[in-house]
Amino acid sequence: MEKGRIHVYVGPTCQADDILQRFPEVVVHPPVSHGSFFSPEIEYGDVAVVVDGFYHHRLGPRHKEYLYALDRGVTVIGTASIGALRALELSAYGMAGFGVVHQLYRAGVFDGDDAVAVAHEEDAPYASLSVPLVNLYTAAQAARAARVLAAGDIDDVVSALRSEYYPTRTPARVVHILRHTGRPRMAEWYERQVDDDPYVFDQKRQDCLGAIDAARHLVAAGAVGRVTGADGADWKTLFLRTWSNHFVGMTGSPPLAHRLAYQQIFNPGYARIWERYLDETYRGHQQRAAVGNARDLEDSVSQLIGAERFPCATEGKKADWLFDFICPVPDLGDPREVELLLSAEESTDAESVVRHLRQTREFTDGVTGPMAGNTSNVLPEEAGKILLCRIWDIPSEELSRECRSRGIPNIKAAVRILQPFIVGAINERTQLRAETV
């Protein structure tokens, strides 16, 4: 069986070239951000070493995203920087911490992001522009060992350096603070040591390289990540599913989310596909244990919350009440669910999706103003409603129910997923009218 891979999420703490020179087999990623762990690049049996993370430049990953990676069988290690702090917060749930910085957090020496935060360049190689407090703590300890600083002065020195806002804690500013707080000897010693070896007090870098070496051993041992300590709590929330679908849905060519939206909007028989999806997925995955003797989805939902609370569905309107009651968010990361949702997709549909997306993009690229290049807001909502009624050949009063019958929770959502296809849809309807005149 093929061994897992090591993924390192790093930025200013350690240069990618430096890592690859020592560990040529690892996959180096930019600092971790919202969506990083939804990538199909990381798989069961891999190890993710989280070092740095974005926070000013873009959204960072939510804590449940780390659990999502663990639940996929990915071992997650936090070290050196924001990774060390997240490992402390999520240690009860299966995330492992590594290194001196992590131990300093565990011991309560530091308790906030500001101890590891640095100002850095926005683009690779994300060069640091300031000095993190944890590295200065390491320097103070080394100064004590070298008899440059008295043991009783360490707290005062660290406190003075901590009071400087982290983006302005540049190397020159560090020396200035030391001199103006009555430690000129340490200032000169620190400046000389860093001139001789820029990495001499770089505890974050040491922890990063050590964590990657530890990850090598975990991969060799066949480690598999898992969520611990959840005690049956349902941490897989709707928000997590929505985040996952957003990032997973943008994979593929054409993107999976657009392929599904095309079926929901343009397949005249998609209501039957959605009903089958509900029957096989909702009843099969969520209700089998509770209502295992249910004959079909309607029966299972009735048993679950009480049949007397539902109107009787006549044979002529087989599941009308069901469509009005339930519209779950599918899991686009589950191949079985995707197969069900796209079971009616034809070979030419992908070509149509690409054509529609291209036509809308060309249209928005050719206009000026707020809509320039924006394919998500081509038509106002009211115009979108009218177009949906024409595509589905229904009166406006039936629009809400038609949306739900196709797995779209509401009209607003339907207009939103229609937007990238609007120009193509209008062009095709115009062409069809011309051919039939």
Q: What can you see in these coordinates?
A:
The chain has 437 residues and is mostly helical. The chain has 20 helices and 5 strands. It has helices at residues 16-22, 63-71, 82-90, 100-106, 133-145, 154-162, 171-180, 184-196, 203-220, 238-248, 256-266, 270-287, 297-305, 320-325, 335-341, 349-365, 381-392, 399-405, 411-418, 422-436; strands at residues 6-9, 27-29, 47-50, 75-79, 96-98. The protein has a 5-stranded parallel β-sheet, sandwiched between helices. Helix 3 links the parallel strand 4 and strand 5 (96-98). The radius of gyration is 28 Å and the shape is elongated. The termini are far apart.
Q: Can you lay out the helices and strands and say which pair or pack?
A:
Elements: E1 6-9, H1 16-22, E2 27-29, E3 47-50, H2 63-71, E4 75-79, H3 82-90, E5 96-98, H4 100-106, H5 133-145, H6 154-162, H7 171-180, H8 184-196, H9 203-220, H10 238-248, H11 256-266, H12 270-287, H13 297-305, H14 320-325, H15 335-341, H16 349-365, H17 381-392, H18 399-405, H19 411-418, H20 422-436
Parallel strand pairs: 1-2, 1-3, 3-4, 4-5
Helix pairs in contact: 3-4, 5-6, 7-8, 12-13, 16-20, 17-19
Summary keywords:
49% helix, 5 strands, mainly alpha, elongated, 4% strand, 20 helices, single chain, 5-stranded parallel sheet, disordered C terminus, 437 residues
Work out the oligomeric state of the chains in this entry.
single chain
Number of helices: 20
> What percent of residues are in strands?
under 5%
Q: State the end-to-end CA separation.
A: 63 Å
Mean pLDDT, as a whole number?
A: 87
For the largest sheet, list the strands in their spatial order: 2-1-3-4-5
Q: What's the helix-strand series?
A: EHEEHEHEHHHHHHHHHHHHHHHHH
Structural class by helix and strand composition? mainly alpha
Shape: elongated
Number of strands: 5
Helix content: 40-55%
